[in-house]
Amino acid sequence: MLRALREIRGLSLVEARLAAAELSGAGLVGTYVEMAHLAEGLRRRSIATAVAQ
After folding, report:
1. 13 CB-near residues (< 8 Å, 6+ apart)
2. Cα dihedral sign for 52, 33, 23, 29?
3. Which residues 6+ apart lie within 8 Å of 37 measured at CB?
4. In this structure, are residues 38 and 29 in contact, taking their beta carbons and an 8 Å threshold?
5. Other CB atoms closer than 10 Å to residue 5's CB: what's the count?
6. What is the pTM of this model?
7. Contacts (Cβ under 8 Å, ≥6 apart) of 7
8. Neighbour-count burial of 16, counting CB atoms closer than 10 A to its CB (0-12 exposed, 13-18 middle, 19+ buried)
9. Measured CA distances, 52 to 3, 28, 39, 44 (Å)
10. pLDDT for 2-30, tens place per residue?
11. Tens of pLDDT, residues 24-35
12. Strand ranges (E), the chain
């Protein structure tokens, strides 16, 4: 997941770790388009995701 987050969002390793921790908990918050883009990138890497509206 860290590699995927770094590639999709251009995050540093520290930022990717924080984002992964958020995803494991309550989830990330952003616009629907941002989250749909992230979810699609994660799915392409076989990481199950869901986007709430």
Report:
1. 2, 6
2. negative
3. 8
4. no
5. 24
6. 0.78
7. 41
8. buried
9. 23, 10, 11, 19
10. 999 999 999 999 999 999 998 888 888 88
11. 888 888 899 999
12. none
